[in-house]
Amino acid sequence: MSEVKKLRLCDWMLVFATAFILASGIQLEVTDSSSIAWVSIHIIIGSLFFANIVWHLYLHFGRKSWVQRLRKQKSPVTRWLAIFALLTIISTFVALFHWIGTYTHSPVGAIHGKISFVFIALAIGHTVKRIKFFKFAKKS
Q1: Contact 16, 134 (CB under 8 A)
Q2: Weakly modelled stretches of the chain, pLDDT under 70
Q3: Distance from CA of residue 132 to its chain's centroid?
Q4: Distances (CA, A) of 95 to 50, 107, 115
Q5: What pLDDT, on the 0 to 100 scale, is given for residue 136?
Q6: What are the tens digits of pLDDT across the range 37-62?
Q7: Pair 95, 108: CB distance under 8 Å
Q8: 111: how many CB neighbours lie within 10 A of its CB?
Q9: Could you give the dihedral angle defined by the CA atoms of residues 113, 116, 122 and 127, in that order, rounded to the nearest 10 degrees?
């Protein structure tokens, strides 16, 4: 499979993962994270989402220094996306460790949710800016 096909597959998977993580995040906000099952599902979806993001970055940058490459991005949206991705992953682990210890929603989880919603909004903007990439090549 060519690199472009891999990237297109990865990006389509990210579109679906974004929709699922957004839906589960909204569901947790609405229900105040009261169900252990729904939080567990959100954790599983989030793990798959994160793995797909890592694959996406690998397809773009290879094994080179991702931090330097992201800092040099021309697009401010991409730079903010990277910053909020980092804040999201940091708050994920803090919220996860608290949740594992108490199985309750906490202010840390609420902050994680708000940061994550900004990250998702930026990711949607990042995708919309590159929407032409998602169109399939015309067959001759």
Answers
A1: no
A2: 136-140
A3: 21
A4: 16, 9, 12
A5: 60
A6: 999 999 999 999 999 999 998 888 88
A7: yes
A8: 14
A9: -120
